[in-house]
Write a structure and sequence with these properties.
Helix content: 10-25%
CATH class of the largest domain: Alpha Beta
Radius of gyration: 24 Å
Shape: globular
Strand content: 25-35%
Number of helices: 7
Distance between the termini: 39 Å
Number of strands: 23
Structural class: alpha+beta
Low-confidence stretches: 1-49, 183-189, 208-231
CATH architecture of the largest domain: Alpha-Beta Complex
Strand order of the largest sheet: 3-8-4-5-6-7
Length: 397
């Protein structure tokens, strides 16, 4: 798992370095000025059937809601209100918030696209595969809108205008289409997601036991006389793939297993069962289900500090902080030192608890250069339950 996380961090760093070194042509669509914006309303979608049992959202319902704001919501740079105004990403965030999808950690269109695997599934760039409600990222990642059909989108436009429905053919530089999903527990006949909280995911084998016991009955006459004995002869193994990959060993104790997944995203859970000591792979039964997990990290902030001494204000916020048991940590990596293969972690807050609220803030004075901040949250037992990273350039010399 550590190797996998290290590789993901390395890939993320390369992407961030590429982003800050490229000259991005913004055309007034998306400011991304404030990173810690929250949707102003809870889930208020009237149509309860707009979200099915697998977390798939009715795209037509999303489009209908978005279109109800056409010509009513003005463009406001970094705006986050459907009454006073939004920018393009702010509009998308507020619309999807009403369907239980939290896009607020990804305040710019580019960030929303880069983190697509944490809240949805990438569809590519083929418009024939798009469907109502999908997010479409255009102008090389500086703009985002909501697909109405393969030819039109509803989106927040430019300063001096408002929300419009317009032809997609006028949108240049399409880099991707993403289909958001709502966080759901997710179940299959043989697997139950007992808990899917910010802190952990608990998976349990259900009918898999009885199915395998039935198989044992066919070959083991004594097993018919002792159901308890048959249960003891079964071993379980779990394989989790998605935003993070984890795998357990074979064990009788794994009938129910707790995973600490610190990355938000779609996961596949595969349960494997076998008779204890079985070595024939063909006799191993597999059951798979999909679930969507949201980690404990609610948002991050990284912005110039205008107080005494200047620098940058950085902060991390969790959705909750039960009994003030969480600890928070922020680390900063110097990209220039990293590129030179020199020790690059130049700043850390260490792990700190807070005794009022659910966020931690600090001020840091960097030199001119490129940096990468790692935000982390731990539970009372020290398990990492939330982690995000963000790159930025300090242009103040």
């Amino acid at each position: 798992m550590k190797k996998n996380l290290k590789n993901k961090c390395r890939k993320t760093l390369i992407c961030l370095l590429t982003m800050v070194l490229m000259t991005t042509a913004f055309i007034g669509f998306d400011s991304g000025a404030v990173l810690n914006v929250r949707a102003e309303e809870e889930n208020t979608a009237d149509d309860k059937e707009a979200i099915d049992k697998d977390g798939i959202i009715d795209g037509d319902a999303v489009v209908a809601l978005a279109e109800s704001y056409v010509d009513k919501v003005p463009y406001v740079t970094a705006g986050n209100s459907l009454e006073t105004g939004t920018d393009c990403s702010g509009f998308v965030i507020l619309i999807y918030a009403q369907f239980g999808v939290d896009l607020s950690p990804y305040r710019s269109a580019q960030s929303m696209f880069d983190n697509a695997d944490k809240y949805g599934v990438s569809i590519g760039t083929d418009l024939s595969q798009a469907r109502a409600g999908d997010l479409i990222f255009t102008h090389d990642g500086s703009h985002v809108g909501i697909v109405v059909d393969s030819e039109t989108l509803v989106h927040q436009t430019v300063p001096g205008s408002s929300v419009k429905v317009e032809p997609i053919k006028y949108m240049t530089g399409i880099i991707g289409i993403v289909r958001p999903y709502r966080v759901m527990a997710g179940t299959a006949k043989e697997i139950t997601v007992v808990e899917n909280s910010y802190e952990k995911v608990i998976l349990k084998a259900e009918d898999a036991s009885s199915d395998d016991n039935a198989a044992l009955t066919d070959t083991d006459e004594e097993a018919n006389k002792d159901i308890t004995k048959k249960d003891e002869e079964l071993e379980y193994k779990w394989v989790i793939t998605g935003a993070l990959d984890e795998e357990t060993d074979w064990s009788k104790e794994n009938e129910e297993y707790t995973f600490y997944l610190n990355k938000t995203g779609v996961y596949d859970a595969t349960l494997m069962t076998r008779k204890k000591g079985e070595t024939d792979d063909e006799k191993v039964k597999e059951y798979t289900t999909e679930f969507y997990h949201k980690n404990a990290l609610k948002g991050i902030c990284q912005m110039p500090y205008t107080g005494e001494g200047g620098g940058y204000l950085i902060g991390v916020e969790s959705y909750e902080n039960p009994d003030y048991s969480y600890t928070y940590e922020m680390l900063i990596l110097d990209c220039t030192l990293y590129a030179k293969n020199l020790p690059a972690w130049i700043y850390t807050t260490n792990r700190c608890g807070v005794y009022d609220g659910n966020a931690m803030w600090t001020v840091w004075q960097p030199q001119y250069g490129y940096y990468w901040t790692l935000f982390r949250i731990y539970d009372r037992d020290g398990n990492l339950i939330g982690e995000e990273c963000y790159g930025f350039e300090n242009i103040i010399k």
